[in-house]
Amino acid sequence: MGQGSNFRRRLKVFTVALTIYLDYKTIQKKDKWITVDKRNDLWEKAHERNANRLLSAIIELEGLWVKLGQYLSTRADVLPDAYIQLLKQLQDSLPPRPLSEVYQTIEKELGKPKSEIFTDFDETPLATASIAQVHRSRLKDGRDVVVKVQHKGIKDVILQDLKNARTIVEWIAWAEPQFDFSPVIDEWCNEAPRELDFNIEAENTRKVARNLNYRSRQSDSSTANYVDVLIPEVIQSAEKVLVLEYMDGVRLNDKAALEALGVDKQGLVESITRAYAHQIYIDGFFNGDPHPGNFLVSKEPPFRPVLLDFGLTKSISSNMKQALAKMFLASAEDYAALLSAFTEMGLRLRLDVPEESMSAINMLFRQSTPAKESLENMKTLNKERESNMKSVKEKMQKYEKSAHRNPVDAFPSDAVIFMRVLNLLRGLSSLLDVHIVYLDIMRPFAESTLMAGNVRNELAENSGWIFDSPVHSQVETKLRHLLLELGRQQYITGIQVCAYKDGKVIIDTAAGILGKYDPRPVQPDSLFSVFSATKGVTAGLVHWMVDKGKFSLADIVANLWPDFAVNGKETCKVSHVLNHTAGLHNAMLDVIKEDPYLMCNWEESLKRVATAKPESAPGSEQKYHSLSFGWLCGGLIEQASGKKFQEILEEAFIRPLDINGELYIGIPPGVESRLASLSLDMQDMQKVVSMNFPRISQEENGSTKLEGATAFGDIAEAISALPSLFNMLFIRRAIIPAANGHCSARALARYYAALATGGVIPPRPSSSEPPLGSHPHVPVFPSREVKNKKKSKTGNCVRSSRKEEKKTTEPKKDNVMNGSCLHDESENASASLFDRTDIHQAFLGLGQYEELVHPDGKFGLGFRRYNAKRIVGSKTRKMAFGHSGIGGSTALCDPNHNFAIAITVNKMSLGGATRKIIQLVYSELGLPLPDEFSTSGESGPDMQLNLRGL
Fold first, then answer.
1. How sure is the predictor about 924, in pLDDT bands with cuts at 50, 70 and 90?
2. What span, in angstroms and rounded, lies between the C-alpha atoms of 106 and 875?
3. Which positions are catalytic?
């Protein structure tokens, strides 16, 4: 191909691309000024016009552009129908090359004239594609075969087309920054030349056939991983000629023929999907070009799919298989594991705004739909995307230089081919008008790959399930044995346990994995969602405000929060809020059931709680305020302090306790890699359904109503939704002070160790790795310009100071620990969180505070009270306080024995594992066991209380 031909092809490509681009930009401008009816007609004509332009150019140019057209013709789920109807012509056949050229190539490549190899050679090709054409033939031994012959000079054409395509992609990325397809074209440039060597394709075909057990047929058809497809046998190959076994079949896009044969199109596409799931997740070797022209359907029952053309295949490493499996499984409900998968496969997101790319992955794995439904679905998805991007843009508006950057900093080549395959498979289902739920079909293959590398498999052989960290005491040694046993019995996925006795750490153990689909080990600094255990921290903040003289426990809430003085709440006191007697236990619950995401809107939640009407008179009865507790406390704190909730949290507890980066109520961007992912203990879920304990509700006429199994079935349904809901980054980043704490056990235990001594901060532990408090509390990203850096007076610690943005929910950035800074252990040795000497009585609602709490209620002032018998004598008294969360995470302290413990878990259960751990630790230390953790029962404390809060 001469220079003149190269120039003409290049000119044609750019002319067509520019013409189509300018046409659509013109339509966009006209669109704003016409009616809806005319608008639809305008766009339909534009699609037809530009589809014809594109098809004409592809037929004229051939080469790589035919492959592009074939790919686009499968995307009925995204492209207008005009493109699909015209471009699908490319799936059938192109004009054939002259027979003389074909015979010349056969003789040159196979070393013999055609007549010495074949007794019969059909001069009319079965198909002509972009790279080669295929003829049916018969060998001398009588076997029917097909002969694939490469077009003469096609290699130079393909390479030139790749250069042109790269230029167009770069130009589009410049003109429309949100459409940067550079990773895709880079991968094509790497892989396309390999398609031109048919010896490689021959070996690829043999390997896929072996992997899918096609010839041996030894796989068990009853297993979820069974694959039933046909693959032609390789007879002979050369660089430009490939001879394969002939298989008679119907083209996949011949819907009339498929219907005449009675083919189950749904089952057909599912079989193809299973075959590709096996190739990707089990074999790590897959065909990267599953367009309709590369499939046939056998004409004999059971009408199995025939897989053809293995020129473009991809081999991936074991680590990449694991990452792709994790990405697939986590895409539906586990954002932390999804981000981990991205990192493992080399896909680097901008961690300040990862939502956009993660949204794209979720859309990739969505259920497929027929073509007629797909465009409507895409419109809906686009609306959702635009809505989500508003919040992303708000986060980015301070950083104008980065506002138009692609949220993906690096995209690995393996992932490009993988996503291309999934998109092509989606196109097949749209082409045949069938619904495919990819998560259901591909899940068994992905799970088998992920579980093969799961650290849980090491439990039976060694103790690798326990994170390697120092043992602080004999009780910790026994605890680790218990954790191994609980792990073997699958009561635990991931867990942290930390305990203090007399101000010193006696337990600091991490074990298990970060999530069902995230086999990375739990570490001491991993962050767990602790649900209602968050209330213990929030309650502590209210007491801190009281201690600093901002208000008193007897103050009227409305005097501090003017908007609160409506609907019969004028007499509600601060103590009523802490004691769960405000009468607002159901505030917002009905609204949240309709729209769970409303609880992520901090200002709106405060507004609704402030205007809510109590169901009972303040102070009259104690009912658990499952979610409203946090907004009531948060509103009080912000109104009385004039600061944001998270600012007070940092000022009161984070910095004094030196637990930077390990306790949050609403996580900041940048900590995602340390998040543990929630999952559900399905055995305990069955117990929830069977519990059937009654609930009593008050009717309007004053009578009571007993609700049993039906109501609890609703609770079971709500529980099953919790992991996927609270695994979402959108939820994790929300300020929900009653239920959205994220922390490590060692940070939570340190907080309770301070509460156990009335606020005296214990010495800083030195044995943990990484050291507690060594993470920056609010990570700083390279894309952000950090100003006014100052050196601290202590060592090389760098503290960043930034001007506070008005009307922002982010905490102040001043005095934020840098990751390399370690404090002197004696720095906070004599410091205290509280000045009052009777703070324990305030927490428990005892002594002078007894009149502020409901008689014999489970709660003191913000904390759950635990009863225990003294070691000497048999009298039971309230000796401990803390809070448990739904699922099993728990923290508590016993001031009488200067003991504190925190347990964080990510496998949500009824708390049985937590109960066993508490029992062991208390027994070994000789401490009086709280009645709520007694040996009777299988669940942890307050599980029914927490469940009813749903």
1. very high
2. 98
3. 289
